[in-house]
TrEMBL record:
Its EC number is 3.4.11.2. Residues 546-861 form the Peptidase M1 alanyl aminopeptidase C-terminal domain. This is Aminopeptidase N. It comes from Sphingomonas abaci. Pfam families: DUF3458 (PF11940), DUF3458_C (PF17432), Peptidase_M1 (PF01433), Peptidase_M1_N (PF17900). Residues 447-541 form the Peptidase M1 alanyl aminopeptidase Ig-like fold domain. SUPFAM superfamilies: Leukotriene A4 hydrolase N-terminal domain, Metalloproteases ('zincins'), catalytic domain. It comes from the Bacteria. It catalyses: Release of an N-terminal amino acid, Xaa-|-Yaa- from a peptide, amide or arylamide. Xaa is preferably Ala, but may be most amino acids including Pro (slow action). When a terminal hydrophobic residue is followed by a prolyl residue, the two may be released as an intact Xaa-Pro dipeptide. Transmembrane segments: none annotated. GO terms for biological process: proteolysis.
Amino acid sequence: MPNSLAAPQTIRRGDYRPPAWMVPETRLDFDLDPAATRVHATLTVTRNGADAGPLRLDGAGQAVQAVRVDGVAVDDWALEGETLIVPLAGDAHVVETEVTIAPDRNTQLMGLYASGGILCTQCEAEGFRRITYFPDRPDVLSRYSVRMTADRARYPVLLSNGDPVASGVQDDGRHWAEWNDPFPKPSYLFALVAGELAVNRGSFTTQSGRAVELGIWVRATDLPRTDHALHALKLSMAWDERVYGREYDLDVFNIVAVDDFNFGAMENKGLNIFNSRYILADPDTATDYDYDAIAAVVAHEYFHNWTGNRITCRDWFQLSLKEGFTVYRDQSFSADQGSAAVKRIEDVRGLRASQFPEDAGPLAHPVRPEAYQEINNFYTATIYNKGAELIRMMATILGPTDFRAATDLYFREFDGTAATCEDFVRCMERASGRDLSRFRLWYSQAGTPRLSASLLHSAGGGRATLRLAQHVPATPGQPIKAPMVLPLKLRLFGAETGRPLTEERLVLLDEADETLVFEAVTERPVLSINRGFSAPVVVESDRSAADLAFLSAQDDDPFARYEAMQQLMLDTLVAATISGEDRHQAVVDAVANTLDDPELDRAFVAEAVLLPSEAFVGDQLAEVDPEAIHQAREALRRALGGALHDRWAHLYAANAQGGYVYSPEAKGKRRLRNVALGYLAASGAPEVGALAWRQFEAADNMTDRQAALNTLANGDFAERPAALDAFYRRYAGNSLVIDKWFQTQALSTRDDAADAVVALARHPDFTLANPNRARALVGAFGVNQRAFNRADGAGYRFLADQLLQLDRLNPQTAAKLLPPLGRWRRFDAPRAALMRAELERIVAQPGLSKDLFEQASKSLA
Ligand code: 0A1
Ligand code: ZN
């Protein structure tokens, strides 16, 4: 392994030591220029504890121009790798450094970089060290004051954290601005932005009557697409006051949107920086899904002001302290804006699509990891989404009153500090008087628990016995697992009367197995378990198709109702994949039943009648056969489309709407109508090409236009080329919509999808330099199970080629796109060999980043 010599260092949680020096004050002076920005940093440092060692400042890529201690130039400093070592005699000093950096050559998009002429920063996790020398770790909190000087014509707007304090114009064509952030913060929350930006302003008055000036900053041409984000921001601010008692704390709150961004957005104190896809929306260019995602991400970043900024993380192993809790908060916020049931279904669908496979694969890690090589690789579905499930379980166990008391205690006790996951759990215990010792395993043990549930009924005696058993599969480095605490909401229903036989019960299963007895059960009971998805586990039950169909029609918990239908569909698809067995009728009947229920919310119906994805079917099988799964799923889609054709046609007509509105009801109708369109297409009905084309042309919103495009693009319709072409032309120049054009084709269910993707990588609009575009084509292709896993390995080769190219520009984004290659254990030997060969080619690449090295080498192990 050529790279083994260069194998990066492993950082371990157990090695944590408090910092030797604190930095109570930081003054930064930027002379901004895209080719050469000068950064003058003045750090007030104080010794922390008894350690007599020198000051150690992290750096990356910049050259030291000058170092001064207490105003005097010194030359006894040294570099240890990229760490600047400054010997200091006393316990308190002022240390100054000067460096020059080149934002316009920064393709990694970490530190200070240029995006479409705007200078902006991204510092989490370790980007600040690419700007200046600093103890770049989250437990060093400092008060920042920032001065920026820049060309006034090119960079008329100068923003940083906190509140603006002064600005002025020089007579050399440059101008300056000073910002001051009174709240001590870690370096990863630093931000600055300089550019030609227009602002959508708003205001918010906090519960204690303080006025906050809000600003959403974008290119002038994008200004008309910022109202939704601004509205979502105001809703978030009010929600956090109402639900958690959290008030905003500065006079201004700014958000800037940029086109080149490695993640969704970043919660820098008072100056959030966003990927423009999570800000910009109007009906013509953004789908309902985009609108919802924008509100969720705006809320997420805003909520970080308390969960992340006021209370930050002691070290990066504690990342889920801020991310898990903040995702839980944004999920709850979104649930409160519309249908909570549909939101829960969407979140569970997402968890199953991204976190369950991660937990079952070579990159599995605990919510609080023990070790990493590159922290950027740990911004994962496990830290974020499984982390949110942990908070949700604690909220369930405590109940709303104790949970709120516990979060109040957490905010009171840890405000202004860098805390740990343990601190959070201890607050949950102290406020509720509960013992969560066993629950803590959720933080340290990786893997998705599997719960088996079987219910026995002795008709004569009226006794029902529920046997529960759990098993946590082995994960890398954790061969043997202890039983976890599973909060399971359950209820029994009578098979004959359809009535509930018990109340809903919360059972805390904390043993490997347990038997529950229910008395006076006078009719055959049907088990509804893990209601609301109260624990993030896989349930294996012996419920028959008839019982699942019954629950899909009768359960009073909407999630359980959805789940029963999913299980029925999944069982059908697994049987069809393995043995070609046709059990379509049971699914057809259950779907018909749901479609005919007038009481149900349209959005719920649309979710409930959707088949599980091909990837999720694959996750149920010992060995994934992508082609067989695809054929089985298409056959069931055809059966549903054909057998229920008239219902789909009716729903399609009945859910047409006059003018576009963004409301839960209107969204639900659009969703159901587009699901109906998909099933009509699956039915093979001759009118569908024309119908979809009409919808494509007449649509007054992107949800309907893209749904029509997807339908046409996935089939063999005569209208297909014209639709793709018309879409491309209509939106040429709007990069967020052109991303959709790439993505639709990368997710295609057609036989030629892999070839089409390879060709699209040569399209003049394709570039790896923009992370959104790379994700739209390469990222989407990686989750297209059938196309990516084409038997000849063309998909694997394509992905590896793209990753190696992307790694030279942007290692962090490259590493994020690698996991599909790590699924080799799940496939037949020829495919596994092809995937391994590509992983080996990646690992052998000279000069590979540690981001990609860590992911590829772990995926091979
Ligand atoms: N804290 C952000 C996520 C984030 C992490 C790293 C980034 O830079 C490469 C950017 C954003 C969040 O949770 O939204
Ligand atoms: Zn976050």
